[in-house]
Batch of 3 targets.
Target 1
Amino acid sequence: MPTPPNLPLLTGYPETTLAPVRELLASGQLGARIAARYPDRHPYTTHKLLHGYVTELKQRHMKTAKPVSKVLYDDRLLVVEHALGLHTFRSRAHGAKLRALSEIRVAGLFKDVAPEFLRMIVVHELAHLREREHNKAFYRLCTSMEPEYHQFEFDLRLLLTAREVEGTVGNEAPRAEPR
Ligand SMILES: [Zn+2]
């Protein structure tokens, strides 16, 4: 019996959900399917624009959470921290006190994605300002900021899986990218 393709980004999803995904992958259609569903691109492609976007969402939904000292795209960040972004909490000596600084680093691949996926990752990182773990309270925060959070996260996982397995992004020609 052939081994089904390993889908590390989709661990934990039930087989009933994964079966159609495997079929689309087998026929090389998964990337195109996601690309068709999310045709737009967001305009926040620089650190500065990203910073503005994060600040606006934080003001609207997480006003009382601790301040974010730094927001940036990090090209060295590949698909880590559960295929998502990376939030870091650093303690720095600040006079006699230790002051916790929060940074939001978003993987460089998010520069060129649909607005839904940028929103999802930023919501995810903002929720981490309150909850460090991926627990129920964490996901409640995510869905309070973006009601379709779970759908977008699942579809992002599909997109990244398609890039891994099919080696293409939607309908584009395959790109040779340095690893
Ligand atoms: Zn996380």
Target 2
Amino acid sequence: MTKLVPLFALVLFLLPLATTRAQTPEDFAEMWEKSHVSNIFPSNVRHADVKQYLEKMKSLGIKIEQVGLSYGNREIYQMEWGNGPLRVFMWSQMHGDEPTATSALFDMFAYLKTHEDDEWVKNFAAKFTIRAIPMLNPDGSELYQRYNLQGIDINRDAVALKTPEGQLLKKLRDDWAPNIGFNLHNQQELTAAGPFARQAAISFLAVRGNKEGITSAGHERNKRICAAMVLALNRFIRGNIGRYDEDYNGRAFGDNFSAWGTPVILIETGALSGKDEMFLVKLNFVAFFAGLQSIVDGTEQSLSPSNYELLPLNTSGRLVWWMFRGVSIVNPGPGNRPFNTDIAVNKLRRRESQPVIASVAAIGSLGGLTGLEEYDASDFYVFPRLDRIRIGSPAELLFYRKSRTVDWNSDNLETAFPPDAVFSEGKWTVGENAVPKKK
Ligand SMILES: [Zn+2]
């Protein structure tokens, strides 16, 4: 009998450790790596793909309901998981060309459903009921545009309610009165975190919901939840996280949800040079779990909101996609003398599957701009394949070493004088490493 006591004590001691060890951000990332169901780049996901994902969710046993129709009569669905008292409402892609979180929501629901026997997932289920609308704006998503089919910005329709999608979102909130809302968007890929031209891979806003600047318990709680998400994401993208200022917008859903009693957290996914869209899905997944976990384990209550409040504010206008420094431009036609300058090139936001449309964004001494890719083109002439090199012209660029003699008036320039490098549709199609990359 006396021999059993130490063993018994040991079991008692180890049991809580085994069952309550907090999941780390790295654990969440690994969970996503091993289990994610999203298998196409979010920007390529169409409404038909959402339906496929939903079939998968249904087969796992997740509650799915068609809750409405878009203006163009596409189905809008809601997923539900958990049976706890805290009502969490998440919606994605109210702007059609902002797709990252839609995939992350499917990954989150699938993970929770397939791991319901894990102790910590049981704690989630006992704490939360989570409802999510993946792709609130299926018509806009189909066209890969911000607006719905009426051309209205749903996120400016919270009061006028001219869109069926906006009406639906308000109704779902009013009928259920969620305790927390997650408003899931994508920001411009060239958004910077702070003044130093660092890309904001993700930005947050705990929405206050009134123009007087009065805070509330829910707003303060959401700042701490944001802090939990920031601390988790710091493990992967420290320095690439931004914050929006709290400008009140009386027509936006985030502000109105907060005013109606559902304090909202805005998450805006950006981009990170060298990382693909799936990396951003993973970051969303990590952020969702880290934020929710902080509520379950109570760490949210003791976290300092400063982890969120001290994030650098988002800035824009400092970053461009490509920068060619010190290049000598030669334009076609008589009397065009080469001149030495910088060229900045940007591209449109499109689906990953679509060809890149890149155009000249600026010409001149562009010391105030930073390219995500910077090239030292000082040993090169650049000649336009199309048009002239001017702001707005297609960035179809032929590069020639200055040591060469080229007849710029040649009828068939590219055949008669093959370029050393060609930049076309946002990539090098000839001479990949000819023009040296800076940094
Ligand atoms: Zn948006």
Target 3
Amino acid sequence: MNAEQPLNQQGQKSYSGTIKNFSKERYISSDWSAREWNAVWTKSWLAAVHVSDLREPGDFVVFDLGPESVLLTCNAQGNVQAFYNVCQHRGVRLVTDHTGNTENFRCPYHSWRYDTDGDLIYAPHQDGFQEGLPTQTLCLPAVRCDKALGFYWINLDPNAEPLDAFLKEMVSIMGHYEFENLTLVQDQTVSINCNWKAVVDNFSELYHVHYLHPQHRRFVDCTESLSECYEGGHTRVWVPGAKTDSLFSTPDKPTDLLTMQLQAFGLDAEQYEGKVDEIQAAIRMAKRALEEKEPFYGNFSDEELTDVIQTNVFPNAILTYQPEMLWLLRLRPHATDPNQCYLDKLSFERSPRDAADRPPESTDDLQEKRTEHTGKTNRPERNCFDYSDVITGSATMTDTIDQDLSLLAHAQKGMHSEGFQGPWLNEIECRVSHFHEHLDTLIRHSEN
Ligand code: FES
Ligand SMILES: [Fe+2]
């Protein structure tokens, strides 16, 4: 399968790949999780940290992954490196803060100290080590780290293929969005009672959208979406934006969400009464007119100016973006339990403004609340919560994701039922099939 074989959700171009179903074991079995750890998590390049978090000497970020924890640092020369986050004395996790800036890292147990190059620089009572203190071998073990698409990526496999080779076409299809120039405005992590792949599956198909997300029909056309499957297990979907869903009759007046988009670009919604079909072209023109002031608009095709695009980079990164914004949704497995996972949502904006004069985004996050910025770096603090907080309304990740989360916990319960054999996929779910096919290939190769 490749990008030249797209699937239109209405089936206007038939899907030429083969949909493969699979057993449910992969969602619930600890044995399967162990195989995945060996074949996927310890072998894949994973988007760990946005470049803006590691710009100044001394900046650091911790990226937890299953049973492992990785420390990314920016050294005195401005070079970014990654290390296992574990003290070489007696194995204590060295850094517990998520982000920060420091001259060196002091272990909370016996006060061994490491610099931002991972070198051991101090240990108390040094004379008492009868076999000496070989600092070359007692430095923090390095983890592969490289930069692409505005992020530092890590790989636990020292012999992994280069990042570029792993990402394949992903750099060429997203490079012009220049994610490195975006600003992080919100950092959230939710723990969910389901397998990580149930969340990836959820964000790999629009089959559920008409029913679970009725608000989408007021600003995007999921019926005309286009799904693409790429080599390496990666996938993408284009959803035409700044219009209503073509499965339903066009309204006489712009919907509330289209009205907000028009207003954000200085257009009078009343002018579009009876002409809702003209809104998409009008917003494209308005963005083109901004090119002189905001040259990044020149990077994009007409479709890219208004469509919402989501690209899933195998195995765990889901990027949803428009010229003005990006969400990185990222799955991380639980250390021991296949029935639990973590979903990170990092929200970025091209030109962050004060909430008061900030235009609404073209997605449905109108009720999104900003977290407070930390005083020192102006970085939003990470906000961690449980999916039950979302269901009770004490936390939100936007209406759409909240709706998804309400379903996912039920999905995991059903997976355990004797009455459920495994998924039975529609063509519209071709990206789900493509992802699992690649996962199966990796597991087969690693075990042969
Ligand atoms: S475990 Fe870190 S100094 Fe002892
Ligand atoms: Fe959804």
